[in-house]
Sequence to fold (127 residues):
Amino acid sequence: MEFYVIYAELFDALKEFGNDGPVLPTATELVELLQCSEDHFEKTENHKDKKILLWYQDRWLPVAVGLEYWDDKNRHYDLPTDKVKLRDGNDWVLSTSTSEAFGLMVYDNCRDKWEEIFKLKHENKGK
Fold:
């Protein structure tokens, strides 16, 4: 799946929260959300944060890390830091810190570009 499609899903999901149109969170804001406690996401005033976190875990991370490690078979039951045994008998961390860092780097580098493309498409519907 292309990164463009994944960005578009978050952009559409955040439309309900933006006054002048949705703004995608920065990579720093994503990292801050990952460090929040579970109680933070249970509060109704943090619905936007929860939506962003779920998008990150369910849509962005599988593309950034790779579906062979973080797919529907394990992401619903395991943590990204859990280890699994591969066919060759070696243990493998589902989502390594370097894979996640690469995903955040790609997100950060493309964020402004995709945000401008979505705004342009929104302002010029049908063109």
About this structure: The longest strand covers residues 83-85. Strands lie at 83-85, 91-93. The mean pLDDT is 82. The chain has one domain: 3-123.
